[in-house]
């Protein structure tokens, strides 16, 4: 069993996910979004499951500072912003087999291990 974690090394939620899986002996493939943006197909997989609005951290500082609360942007424009600033996402994004999760979601993480 292995999981793929998309996040930022300095994100508390990303570190919590890493710790959760390491404590359970799960192999982790960490993708630091500051170093390497997500592939289009990978982002599409999360959008199909949660919707674009579900991926955005609308309460986060990056979202508020970018003024996204007040803009009407197309999905393509939002995706472009996400590529430039991954802090707009609810991190971490985790894929374990066919199971996906966003944010700190230990219930789904446990389901990945079952």
State the CATH topology. Answer: Glutaredoxin
What share of the residues does DSSP label as strand, in percent? 15-25%
N-to-C span:
10 Å
Structural class: alpha+beta
Structure summary, number of beta strands: 4
Strand order of the largest sheet: 2-1-3-4
Low confidence ranges: none
- The chain-level mean pLDDT equals 92
Apparent shape? globular
CATH homology-level superfamily = Glutaredoxin
**What CATH first level would be assigned?**
Alpha Beta
**What is the number of helical segments per DSSP (H or I, 4+ residues)?**
6
The CATH architecture would be: 3-Layer(aba) Sandwich
Notes on the structure:
- It is a single chain.
- The chain has one domain (2-113): Glutaredoxin (3-Layer(aba) Sandwich), CATH 3.40.30.10.
- With 114 residues, it is of the alpha+beta class.
- It is built from 6 helices and 4 strands; from the N terminus they run βαβααααββα.
- The chain is globular.
Task: Using brief descriptors, characterize the structure shown.
globular; 114 residues; 4 strands; single chain; 44% helix; alpha+beta
Sum this structure up briefly.
It is built from 6 helices and 4 strands, in the order βαβααααββα.
What layout of secondary structure does this protein have?
Layout: E1 2-7, H1 12-23, E2 27-32, H2 40-50, H3 52-55, H4 61-65, H5 75-84, E3 93-96, E4 99-102, H6 106-113
Parallel strand pairs: 1-2
Antiparallel strand pairs: 1-3, 3-4
């Amino acid at each position: 069993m292995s999981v793929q974690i998309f996040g930022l090394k300095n994100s508390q939620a990303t570190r919590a996910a890493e710790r959760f899986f390491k404590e359970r002996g799960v192999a982790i493939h960490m993708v630091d979004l500051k170093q390497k943006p997500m592939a289009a197909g990978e982002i599409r997989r999360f959008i199909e499951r949660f919707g674009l609005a579900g991926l955005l951290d609308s309460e986060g500082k990056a979202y508020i500072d970018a003024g996204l609360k007040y803009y009407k942007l197309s999905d393509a424009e939002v995706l472009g912003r996400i590529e430039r600033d991954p802090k707009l996402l609810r991190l971490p994004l985790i894929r374990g087999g066919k199971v996906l999760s966003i944010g700190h979601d230990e219930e789904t993480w446990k389901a990945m291990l079952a």
